[in-house]
Amino acid sequence: MLLALPAALLLSAEAAAQPAKDCAPQAPTTNPNEIVVCAVKPDGYRISPDLMEARRLKKQGNSGPPKNPHESFADHSCATVGPMGCRGQPTVNLIAVAAVAAQMGQRLSKGQEVGSMFETTPTSSEYQLYQQAKKQREAKEEAEAAAKVKAAAEAQAAAAKN
C-alpha cells in the first residue's frame, strides 16, 4: 500500500508534464520541471463600465486642498511673547455654537440627519460616483432605445404611406 502512493504520484506527474490533447501543439521542452496547463479562455469577464466611469470621476474630482509633505502645522504665532502676552488666540464663538445647536434641534425635530452640517469639504465617495455613473448609463441606454423605437415607427409610417 505504501509503495502504491509514490507510484501514483510519479504517474500523475508524468501525465501533468505532457500537454493535453485539446491544447495547441507545443514545442517539446528539455526542462522536466516545466508543466503545461491548458485552459479555456473565459469570455464573460469584464469590468463594469459603471465602475470604470466612477473611478474616472474620482480621479477628476476634487481631492481636497493640495498637501505639502513638509508642512508641520506648528503654530508659531506666539513665539515672541512681549509684555502683553499672546493676543489673538483662537476662541470659541458662542453665538455660532448656539445657532448650530438650534439648527440641529430643528433638523432632529423633523427627523432629518445632522451629519451633513459638519462636512467642511463635501466630496462624493467612490460608491456614490458609481451610482451616478450607473444612472447616467441607464438613462443614455433608455434614450437610445426610445430613439430606435421612434425611428422604427417613423419608418413603418413612411412605408405605409407608399
Describe what this molecule looks like in 3D.
The chain has 162 residues and is mainly α. Helices cover 49% and strands 0% of the residues. The chain has four helices and no strands. It has helices at 4-17, 49-60, 94-110, 126-161. Helix 2 packs across helix 4. It is flat, with a radius of gyration of 34 Å.
Short description:
By secondary structure, the protein is mainly α. The protein has 4 helices and no strands.
Features:
162 residues; mainly alpha; flat
Mean pLDDT: 78
Shape from CA axes?
flat
Name the poorly predicted regions: none
Helix content: 40-55%
Distance between the termini: 87 Å
Q: Supply Rg.
A: 34 Å
The count of helical stretches stands at 4
- Beta content comes to under 5%
Q: Main β-sheet, in a few words?
A: none
Question: What are the secondary-structure elements, in order, as H or E?
Answer: HHHH
Number of strands: 0
Structural class: mainly alpha
Chain-wise SSE layout:
Blueprint: H1 4-17, H2 49-60, H3 94-110, H4 126-161
Helix pairs in contact: 2-4
